[in-house]
Amino acid sequence: MEQVEFxxxxxGACCAFKWSWPVFKRDRSDAINIPNEMVRTDYPLMKTExxxxxxxxxxxxxSVCCKIYNDRPNSCRKFEPGSDxxxxxxxxxxx
Length: 95
Hints:
The chain has 95 residues and is α+β, with helices and mostly antiparallel strands. Helix content is 22%, strand content 17%. It has one domain. A hairpin with a 2-residue loop joins strand 3 (48-49) and strand 4 (52-53).
């Protein structure tokens, strides 16, 4: 089977394909540098704008980076390049 390379720095689909990204209480204590303005107050979620995480900078499919990469939530840390969810996001946004 051929190994596929997933270049996350030119993709960003995982951060831009749904309205909700969880930020749990443990994330807030572990990642204390997540700015309050990036976290919703009605739910424990990262804020989004047009279904894109507000911490995502750049243009999806071209060049992106996370403004809070070192302090990103656990759900982001655990997201695996090449996973089924990754492929779903890429299919939805990049095809």
